[in-house]
């Protein structure tokens, strides 16, 4: 069996103007009709995107871009956007860069 990889990304839902967190995660989840790769999180301002089992990084990128195309127009209904960030990068040699 060939190895696969999967990625999960947590998105913070924010108001477009104020950039403050807004509790629209339940609305977004309802709008995507139980999409298998868009899930709830603990906070009502957070949703999680999960890729399928991917063969390579290009496939991960495609999955995430496809999910973005589902979520973005729904956020716009409530004048919202989403943010995400990364605080650490794992290098191939096992070390991390904190940025």
State the shape.
Answer: elongated
Strand content: 25-35%
Q: Give the total of domains.
A: 1
Cα(first) to Cα(last) distance is 36 Å
Layout: helices, strands, pairs:
Layout: E1 8-15, H1 25-31, E2 38-40, E3 46-50, H2 57-77, E4 80-83, E5 88-90, E6 96-98
Antiparallel strand pairs: 1-3, 1-4, 2-3, 5-6
Key attributes of the depicted protein:
99 residues; alpha+beta; four-stranded antiparallel beta sheet; two-stranded antiparallel sheet; 2 helices; elongated
Give a description of the structure.
It is a single chain. The chain has 99 residues and is α+β, with helices and mostly antiparallel strands. It has one domain. The chain has helices spanning 25-31, 57-77, and strands at 8-15, 38-40, 46-50, 80-83, 88-90, 96-98. The strands form 2 sheets. Strands 2-3-1-4 form a 4-stranded antiparallel β-sheet, with helices on one face. Strands 5-6 form a two-stranded antiparallel sheet. The longest helix is centred in the last third of the chain and has 21 residues, at 57-77.
Quick synopsis:
With about 100 residues, this protein is α+β, with helices and mostly antiparallel strands. The chain contains 2 helices and 6 strands; from the N terminus they run βαββαβββ.
């Amino acid at each position: 069996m060939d190895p696969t990889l999967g990625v999960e990304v947590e998105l913070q839902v924010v108001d477009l103007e104020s950039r403050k967190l807004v509790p629209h995660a339940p609305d977004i989840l309802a709008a995507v009709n139980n999409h298998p790769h868009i899930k709830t999180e603990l906070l009502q301002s957070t949703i999680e995107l999960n890729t399928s089992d991917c063969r390579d990084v290009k496939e991960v990128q495609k999955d995430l871009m496809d999910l973005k195309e589902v979520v973005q127009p729904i956020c716009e209904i409530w004048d919202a956007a989403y943010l995400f960030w990364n605080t650490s990068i794992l290098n191939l040699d096992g070390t991390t860069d904190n940025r």
